[in-house]
Specification:
This protein is α+β, with helices and mostly antiparallel strands. It has helices at residues 13-25, 65-75, 93-102; strands at residues 3-10, 31-44, 47-61, 84-88. Helix 1 (13-25) packs antiparallel against helix 2 (65-75).
């Protein structure tokens, strides 16, 4: 089992929360970090663009990459969302085991969320 970090960016906090929540709920990712304040400068359709975005860092297993990518494409509002995977050559064995346990589709989970639902406002 190999750990990967998948990176994507989105335009709104609500979309970041939606994608992160769904990836974890579908057991495709153990954890998603949402980083605000990302400034992206890029070429799109012949123009240089500049946008403020949120970056998602998705911790999962390499076997989940296709499912993660499909969920991002399903929920993302960009025509061509960034979906890049980076291999993680080493990690704390306990953290790596936690990732594996978290994406195990056969494991029993209580998918009850924390009471702090206000942090997960969706559009």
């Amino acid at each position: 089992m190999r750990v990967i970090a998948v990176v994507t960016t989105v335009g709104t906090e609500n979309q970041a929360n939606l994608i992160a929540r769904e990836l974890v709920a579908r057991r495709q990712a153990a954890c998603v970090n949402i980083l605000p304040g990302v400034r992206s400068i890029y070429r799109w359709q012949g123009k240089i663009c500049k946008d403020d975005e949120f970056m998602l860092i998705i911790k999962t297993q390499d076997t989940e990459f296709e499912a993660v990518a499909e969920t991002i494409r399903e929920l993302h509002n960009y025509e061509l969302p960034e979906i890049l995977a980076v291999s993680v050559p080493k990690g704390d064995p306990r953290f790596v085991a936690w990732i594996a346990d978290s994406v195990d589709k056969d494991a029993e989970f209580d998918d009850e969320e924390d009471d702090d639902e206000d942090d997960l406002a969706y559009e």
